[in-house]
Write the structure tokens for this entry.
Amino acid sequence: MDSDPPQSLEGLADGLSQEAKRAGDQVAFGTILAGFGRRAYGPMLLVPALIALAPTGAIPGMSIVTGSIILLISAQLLVGRKTPWLPKMVLEFEFEADKFARLSQRLTGYASRADRWLRPSMPFLIQPPWTRGIALVSAAMAVLMFPFALLPFAVAAPAATISVLAVGLTANDGRFVAVGLLSALVVLGLVVWFVV
């Protein structure tokens, strides 16, 4: 799978903000994702990961929904599907628009600063077979979100790891992919430590 052209995080955050302004009391996942194009695996992984990481992730069932979306998208990236697909039930899942609006406003400021540090680098990490490794790691982190949903704030660890990987994919910045992979090793190591 060829990598998508680098995308501005500020542009993505601004797109989220515009969708929030157009929404009523509730906003659907499909409405948010539609603005990014279905070929962009980076944003498609980044948006649900950020929603799980933000206060919106505390909404009952949200971690399960976002984890399921990330798992499904990761599986499609793994098999090399060109266009990510999501079922209608997921696209129609709604949550409070005001919480999403607050999230998008905060993200715009952070994204503007983050864009200064992003640049295409280490391109081999954005190409197969590494993209399949990213997909496997993202899927593993998404699976962890299901049991972690039972623990306060535990979902933040896998969600943050997926976010870093997704930023790397979005901006074609292999440095972020490398950091995300290292973060996944730490998370998995801690899980093994506590379980064993």
Notes: Strands lie at 26-28, 94-96. The chain has a mean pLDDT of 81. The chain has one domain: 9-195.
